[in-house]
Design brief:
Blueprint (H helix, E strand, L loop, with lengths): L1 H27 L4 E2 L7 E2 L6 E17 L2 E20 L2 E11 L3
Antiparallel strand pairs: 1-2, 2-3, 3-4, 4-5
Length: 104
């Protein structure tokens, strides 16, 4: 019983000091900054490339008239896009990924 109590005390004391250290580092960490000449893009701390995250969500009802009357169903669509650009000796290199679902 004594050994379990000491182990629990060590975990609590060690965890508390680690959390305090993490909070101190979070206060001095650099933040993202806007990329010059590229509206909507941000630069991560320490990275030379610029990144933009965008997307959209749409919802509605699809109504169709048929022989049996009006049929309705819900329609939802969405997408997310990541655009990354970096300047190199050969020019700008662009990486673009877009993932979506639903109908357009």
């Amino acid at each position: 019983m004594r050994r379990a109590f000491l182990a629990l005390a060590a975990v609590l004391v060690g965890g508390a000091s680690a959390n305090a250290l993490d909070l101190d580092l979070a206060k001095i960490a650099p933040t993202m900054e806007a990329c010059p000449g590229r509206p909507g893009f941000v630069r991560m701390p320490g990275a030379p490339n610029c990144t933009r995250l965008s997307g959209r969500v749409a919802g509605g009802v699809d109504a169709r008239a048929g022989a049996g009357g009006v049929a309705t169903r819900p329609v939802a669509a969405g997408r997310i896009a990541i655009d990354n650009r970096a300047d190199t000796d050969f020019g700008e290199v662009r990486t673009y990924v877009r993932v979506g679902n639903g109908r357009r």
